[in-house]
């Protein structure tokens, strides 16, 4: 099959040979990079946030709802399932595989409704259960309890909550924690390495490499705590959240209690007040926290990139790759650049998810349906970025010679220390300490100040002898305050 563009060239323009359509290649070629180039990194998310994972969780919810109804005798006359029958139903979930995926796809072509296809799958398995469990099984008698009193969103909201919880707790959080621990480890390792700070891009009060990394690790850990404490809400209350069908069918049952007990049985937080849909507010809250983690990680990537460009970090380990196709000397900081781009894509998706999901017209519209199918890519790009930053950091060594050179070239940063000491001395009654800021401004602004010139200036101020000697002995490399000690707060 040729591309349409090959057929539609302007008259008189030489047409290239028709190309085979890549859309027809088997096995199918991925459209996006997460399922193509970067598949290996994000593959663990497939178990939680793919279309197949969605259908598996739908089956899980439907099976557990059926078991819940029969166990609690919610519907009069319904038999209690034996342990063997419950195991048979739950095996549909544990044995869910590519054949089940294909079967559901074939059924959905007929139903044109994904949740209905799941319902029919379960009914078929229950109808054929006698061939496995024997003719005495009651499963064929209770097929109409599959999807009982449910709207599709009763199943979907619970399935998505289980999917997202699994993806966050089993895949994303472990990767994020490993990264943050790596940053924290580097902070401790380099706690005492002095480094010129830059505020507004200009030389500023020195710090240590470890303290600056500790700031980022501390910020990231705070977001992780928020994400670890996320609530995953769910509901199962019918077409408009009123238990209308439930009470019409069985008015004697305590459906509110049964609903709450079921949602909590799944390990979720029960939402008592909804329309047809669970309101998705918890998703917006979670995605905002993950996006904030992403943005802090983006800040780390840009800062480390800048430190590499300044020579503070040398890229030495695991860097056998080609840096430039034409310049052999280059080792490009590609891991951090790749991370930046993927974090930006992830945040854009997470922001869009959060903004869209909290709104639904009246009792229901379908904007959330297609939107939620992009949860996987949102987490996928974040996971890919985390992997890139981890690999990038693993290839770095601090070049203490470079940081020392930069510090020694900027003695003027001691102006802050000197004028502050002059202020304190003036308050204590020492004469001659007037206009400290202005005097240091005249000495340092727009000028390179050498160590000898700074010491000469300090010793000529008339400061108390001990103060003068302490300041005269100070260098940019020793003017780091409590920076090294502050790293210990990472362990609190």
The total count of strands amounts to 6
Counted by DSSP, the helix tally is: 22
Unreliable spans are: none
Radius of gyration: 32 Å
Domain count: the total is 3
Question: Helix/strand/pairing class, anyone?
Answer: mainly alpha
Briefly note the CATH topology name of the largest domain. Fumarase C, Chain A, domain 2
The portion of residues assigned to helices is 55-70%
CATH architecture of the largest domain: Up-down Bundle
Q: Which strand-content bin applies to the residues? A: under 5%
| Strand order in space, largest sheet | 1-2
The global form is elongated
Quick check: average pLDDT? 92
Protein name: Adenylosuccinate lyase
Region (Disordered): 1-21
Enzyme class: lyase
Family: Belongs to the lyase 1 family. Adenylosuccinate lyase subfamily.
Describe the structure.
By secondary structure, this protein is mainly alpha-helical. It has 3 domains: 100 residues, Orthogonal Bundle (Fumarase C, Chain B, domain 1); 214 residues, Fumarase/aspartase (Central domain) (Fumarase C, Chain A, domain 2, Up-down Bundle); 75 residues, Ribonucleotide Reductase Protein R1, domain 1. 58% of the residues lie in helices and 5% in strands. It contains 22 helices and 6 strands. Helix 10 runs antiparallel to helix 13. The chain is elongated and about 105 Å long.
């Amino acid at each position: 099959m040729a591309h349409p563009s090959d057929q539609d060239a302007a008259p008189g323009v030489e047409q290239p040979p028709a190309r085979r359509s890549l859309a027809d290649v088997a096995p199918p070629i991925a459209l996006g990079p997460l399922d193509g180039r970067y598949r290996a990194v994000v593959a663990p998310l497939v178990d939680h946030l793919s279309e197949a994972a969605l259908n598996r969780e739908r089956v899980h919810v439907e099976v557990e709802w059926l078991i819940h109804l029969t166990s609690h005798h919610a519907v009069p006359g319904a038999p209690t399932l034996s342990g063997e029958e419950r195991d048979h139903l739950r095996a549909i979930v544990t044995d869910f595989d590519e054949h089940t995926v294909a079967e559901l796809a074939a059924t959905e072509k007929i139903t044109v409704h994904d949740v209905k296809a799941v319902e029919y799958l379960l009914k078929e398995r229950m109808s054929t259960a006698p061939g496995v469990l024997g003719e005495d099984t009651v499963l064929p008698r209770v097929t109409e309890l599959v999807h009982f009193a449910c709207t599709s969103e009763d199943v979907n909201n619970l399935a998505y909550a289980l999917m997202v919880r699994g993806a966050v707790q089993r895949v994303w959080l472990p990767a994020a924690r490993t990264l943050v621990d790596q940053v924290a480890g580097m902070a401790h390792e380099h706690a005492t390495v002095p480094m010129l700070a830059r505020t507004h891009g200009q030389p500023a009060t020195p710090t240590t490499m470890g303290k600056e990394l500790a700031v980022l690790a501390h910020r990231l850990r705070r977001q992780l705590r928020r994400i670890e404490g996320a609530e995953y809400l769910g509901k199962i209350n019918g077409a408009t959240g009123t238990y209308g069908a439930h009470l019409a069918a069985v008015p004697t049952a305590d459906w509110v209690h049964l609903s709450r007990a079921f949602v909590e049985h799944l390990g979720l937080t029960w939402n008592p007040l909804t329309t047809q849909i669970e309101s998705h507010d918890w998703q917006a809250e979670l995605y905002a926290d993950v996006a904030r983690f992403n943005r802090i990680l983006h800040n780390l990537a840009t800062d480390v990139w800048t430190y590499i460009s300044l020579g503070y970090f040398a890229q030495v380990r695991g860097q056998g790759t080609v840096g430039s196709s034409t310049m052999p000397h280059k080792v490009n900081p590609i891991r951090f650049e790749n991370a930046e781009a993927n974090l930006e894509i992830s945040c854009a998706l997470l922001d869009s998810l959060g903004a869209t999901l909290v709104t639904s017209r009246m009792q229901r519209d379908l904007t959330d349906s297609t939107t939620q199918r992009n949860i996987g890519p949102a987490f996928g790009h974040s996971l890919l970025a985390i992997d890139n930053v981890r690999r990038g950091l693993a290839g770095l060594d601090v070049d203490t010679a470079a940081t020392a050179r930069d510090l020694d070239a900027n003695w003027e940063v001691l102006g802050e220390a000197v004028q502050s000491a002059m202020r304190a001395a003036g308050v204590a009654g020492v004469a001659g300490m007037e206009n400290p800021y202005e005097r240091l401004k005249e000495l340092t602004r727009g000028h390179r100040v050498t160590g000898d010139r700074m010491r000469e200036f300090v010793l000529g101020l008339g400061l108390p002898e001990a103060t003068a000697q302490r300041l005269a002995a100070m260098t940019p490399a020793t003017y780091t305050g409590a920076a090294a000690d502050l790293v210990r707060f990472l362990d609190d």
